[in-house]
Structure formats: C-alpha cells, structure tokens
Fold this protein.
Amino acid sequence: MEPVRFGLVGYGFGGRYFHSPLLAAAPECDFLGVVTTSPARQALATSEHPGIETFGSLAELRDAGAEAVAISTPADTHSRLTDEALELGLAVVCDKPFALDADAARRSVELAERLGLPLSPYQNRRWDSDFLTLRALVADGTLGTLTRFESRFERLDPDPGPPPSGGGTLRDFGSHLVDQALVLLGPVASVYAEWRLRDNGLDDDVFLALTHVDGTRSHLSGSWSQGAPGPRFRATGTTGSYVVTALMDGQEDALIAGQTPATLGAGWGVEPAERWGRVHRGDDGEAVPTRAGRWSSYYPAFARAVRGVGSVPVDPRDAVMTATVLDAARRSATEGVVVPLA
C-alpha cells in the first residue's frame, strides 16, 4: 500500500509524545510535518523528526500534498480544526476530547459523512495492554457474566489537570474512561456524577456511576490530585474479579522516554510480570499474563481506511455517544440528579 501522506496539528505534549512517534514509526504513513506557529515548537519538531517540514496553517499542509491530518491541540479548538480540515478534503484523526459537547461532535461526524472522508477519534486507550486483557477475559468467560466495572485514571500532579483550554478532568480523563466502559458494556441508560471544582473553575476528582442498558454498572473515577490512586481496574463478574493495581499502561512512559514501536520491535507494549493483573475468586488471586499493548495499530488501520481497505479504527459515532454521556455527567454533577438517556 502506498503510504498515506500525514500531517500533525500541534506539537505540545500530546502531539510530541502520543502522535508524532507513532506516525513516524508506521510504514503505512508518510509523516510530512507539523502545523504550528510557535518558533520553539517548530524547532523542536524538526530536530526530533529530521526531514519533516513545519506549516503555518492546515491549507499550507494540504497544499504540500497531505491526505490526512491528526489534530492534537487544546480541546476548545478540536471541532473548529476538525471541520476546517474536512472542508479542505483531509481525512482526520482528532484527539480527545473529540468535541466539547455532543452537538459539536455530531456536526463534525455528519460533515465527514457528507464529504465522504474518513474521520476517527483518537481513542488509543482501547489498545491499552490491561484493557485488551480484560476484554479477552470477558470474551472467554473467565469472569462469568460481568456485573460491575470499576476504572480509574488517578494521579498526583503539583499543577493538577489540563489548562482551562483543556476543558477539565471530566472531558480529559473522562473521554477515555467512558469510551472504555461503552466498549466493554454497551450503551448507557442513566448517568450520575460528582466532581470538585478547583479555584480556576475547572472540575477535578470526578466520579461517574453509569447504569448500562443491560443493567450492568460502571464506576469511573478521574483525578489529577489523588495522592493514593486506587486500582486501575476492578472488573467483577459472576465467577471472578479481575484487578489491575498498576496505575497506567506502560506505552505512555515508553513514548515519553523516547522509545517507539520502531525502536522496540516485538518488545513494544509488553508489560513485566510485576505489573500483571490478577483474577480473584475470594482468594489472593492468580496472575494473568497481560497482553501486549497495541497503540501502534491505530495509525496503520486509519491509513488503510484512507486507502479504502477496511474501516477506521474508532467509529466517529462512538465519540458522539461518549460526548452524550459526558454532557449528562456535567448536568448530574451540577444539579445533583440522575440523568436518564434515551
């Protein structure tokens, strides 16, 4: 397959660590360059990826021959840039949160459908090592019928949370937490949420209780100011529970350390035994080898979709569903009510 000519918008933390290394490592992608108007970030991008160019706008990127673009900018620019890129004829990957609300998410999805262009939310956490393992345990019946899913993104940061342009912890961590719950347990019937508002007016220490249409429940927590993070997962079924105490999948740390799928090869995404989860049945539990994480599969799959071979790795309609749950969570936390969903 001829590689898809790809650009990246933004070279902050997300663009630098979560997108550019994976684009550069994917044979299916030809990483052309970065759209940024910051001289410092232009210099950083070209020093870390020799041979790429920098561009002042999406139009310049398109005129340089790009076919697709990944957007990794502050959350409040996502919808505008997604729609602009689509109108320029570019296929689009958009980082989380895909949009600040469900209406904006739906407008972008409908625009992509009208134009016949691939569009996909960057829900890389679907390919976390621990989540892949959990899905396999559910699929093979190891846990019986799943009844409750507890999931946490919790950490302690001296300057907690995304900046105001990031939209708060609910939209930030919540985008991944809700997406994983929907993938695992399906549509949601009702939402209850709590949060703590920080001095800058943004939320932190968020908690969501989702009741899914089939009656199962998800309890989701997100915090940038938690000194004692709880287990990453506790998934309870009728015949056992799967517990992961390791705080986060190791692919993030690997990328920050300068490692990529290209440098690690078969070692990419492999978790050491001390980070494996355990299946408990009222005992100390049995360690379950963790499946290798596969963030590296996202961009090759999207490139194939651009070439008309297969579907996008994450259906954009899933982003509308996630945003709908997050909208309900904001209402619930603000009004102190349980919000039913159609």
About this structure: The CA atoms of residues 189 and 213 lie 5 Å apart. The chain has two domains: 4-124+298-313, 125-293+325-340. The radius of gyration is 20 Å.
